[in-house]
Amino acid sequence: MTEPKNRKGALAAHLTEPEKTVASGTATFVVGPYPARKARVREEGGANLRDPQARLDEAVGLARAIDLDVVEAFIVTLDDVRPSTYLGKGKVEELTGAIKASDIGLVVMDCALSPVQQRNLERAWGCKVIDRTGLILEIFGRRARTREGALQVELAHLAYQKSRLVRSWTHLERQRGGFGFLGGPGETQIEADRRIIQERMTRIERDLEQVKRTRSLHRASRRRVPYPVIALVGYTNAGKSTLFNRLTTASVMAEDMLFATLDPTARAITLPHGEKAILSDTVGFISDLPTMLVAAFRATLEDVVEADVLLHVRDVSHEDTEAQAADVETILRELGIDETRQRSLIEVWNKADLLDEAGRERLAALAVRKGEGPQPVLVSAQTGYGIDALLAEIEARIAAGRPVYRVILAPTEGATLNWLYEEAEILRREEGEDGHIALTIRLSPDKEARLTRRCPGARRVAA
């Protein structure tokens, strides 16, 4: 009776302790098997056709994010996907020679492989193969710092692994060593392992429900304060954390690395007229983000759904910035944020410091000419360029529709003056010779009743 328990414990330990150091320095090929242009037009309708080289560069960046030694990267143009190996037979054989000549230990395929395709490629190439979903899961496993983040990542790992039990389990037979959840060719105990995984997934889902309830209580307490919530969203490595640090003077990890931020962080900021707000940093989005990860991180992204203002941070120095923006908008729609919320969304065109003067002027002019609706704000989170304009735009967006009052206070009403500075935005202050103070203030509608009780003579004026 003790052996199954020990085996179960060993499997659980294997699943909950990702191998962090084995991958470091592994000689790696990155293969980008992308459809030919005609096939892309046929599949995607000609909209937002991502540049293959930009896609490959992103895949290389993902591989380097877990310290893999990328020896070479290839673009493979596909007319059709082969059910058995994804690539054509000739290309598989061609890469076999290159892999053996360079003593490659891992091949990253920038696509979604079926378990059968992954197994057949490993057999053909004699090394480990990992697809885009597996690679992103590995990165998320490295970046999670909080208990919530670790649980979400583990749940996504388990969902991915459960679908691949047809291939192998690393704890069963390790003929080639280990790398995360990829390994040797064991084919026994599949049903027992599937049951163990399902039991673990059920426990994690229960734990995450508790986390979700705790987060809901935190949000409820913030609403009682209440402070408006501003959420940062955007493509990974767009500069969200650097902007977060600039606006809050915090020290959240911000590096030139894909998925540097995984766990959500929230801090208070002060807007130009003195009002407090909560700024929330979130996980970066990416094209072809695995569905299981979107589902796993839905609790974390509830701050985005309920935010008063969304800052969509874009890296305008990136050649594929338009396609990246389209990917972010797609995920926002999946989260239930559609065109009806556009009035609360501000596009932040970041990394202006990486553009020359002509480039900045061109983008500034483009922002002014940009269709109907709110204009984007060009900033550099690194240098502080445009930050004042961004704060003013955030404040204007929060203030839209809020009532404005004119209040006159006697010199003896210091307590009321203090309350107004804490609870309202002071738009204008005038002091008379007799010591009276005239204030023009703006405040949230839920505070109007308290204002009129404290200041019966307050009168509403045009904004």
From TrEMBL:
A GO molecular function held by the record: GTPase activity
Name the keywords, alphabetized. Cytoplasm, GTP-binding, Magnesium, Metal-binding, Nucleotide-binding
Please name the InterPro entries in this protein's record: G_HFLX_dom, GTP-bd, GTP-bd_M, GTPase_HflX, GTPase_HflX_N, GTPase_HflX_N_sf, HflX_C, P-loop_NTPase
Any idea which positions bind GTP?
234-241, 259-263, 281-284, 350-353, 380-382
Residues that bind Mg(2+): 241, 261
PANTHER family, A to Z: GTP-BINDING PROTEIN 6-RELATED, GTP-BINDING PROTEIN HFLX
**Subunit structure, per the record?**
Monomer. Associates with the 50S ribosomal subunit.
This protein's name: GTPase HflX
Gene this protein is translated from: hflX
